[in-house]
Design a protein that fits this description.
mainly alpha
Length: 162
């Protein structure tokens, strides 16, 4: 049973007592022609009214306290969420920064590797060009030697013919 059920039951009982009092007053009016309330009944009604007002004030204060606690909790929760959001944002930014740094390092490594490959290719091309040049001169030398031998053979044959 909740507090509110107890309150409504007490209010119902108070209404019954007031109705009984009103019936008693009406009966007294009929019998004596006037209304006289004894001190005990007045005191009970005053206490009931006072209790009712105090209960209302207490419930009102309880509601205000609950509302202020709820508001404070909501403010605290909002602050926690903002802090968590900031932390999450910082982690994301750090992850992005670290990722970009790793990417830059990889790009630098790739650039260095490309330079090394260019250097290797350049030296290979230069070596190949040297071989081609050597081959040309070798071919020229071979042709010159063959021509010289041919000339020598022809001269030797001419001299051998008497």
């Amino acid at each position: 049973m909740s507090k509110y059920d107890a309150v409504s039951r007490k209010e119902h009982n108070m209404k019954i007592i007031k109705n009984m009092y009103q019936d008693e007053v009406a009966t007294a009016k009929e019998q004596r022609g006037g209304v006289r309330m004894d001190d005990g009944t007045k005191m009970i009604l005053e206490r009931m009214d006072k209790d009712s007002r105090e209960r209302e004030a207490r419930y009102h204060n309880d509601a205000k306290e609950r509302e202020s606690r709820y508001k404070a909790e909501m403010i605290e929760q909002d602050k926690r969420w903002r802090d968590e959001m900031k932390e999450r944002e910082e982690r994301i930014l750090n992850a992005i920064k670290e990722g970009s740094e790793r990417t830059e390092k990889k790009i630098t490594a790739i650039e260095d590797e490309v330079k090394q490959i260019k250097s290797d290719v350049s030296s290979s091309v230069q070596h190949t060009q040297q071989l081609v040049t050597a081959n040309k001169w070798g071919s020229i030398g071979t042709i010159a030697a063959i021509v010289a031998l041919s000339i020598t053979v022809i001269i030797a044959m001419i001299q051998l013919k008497p």
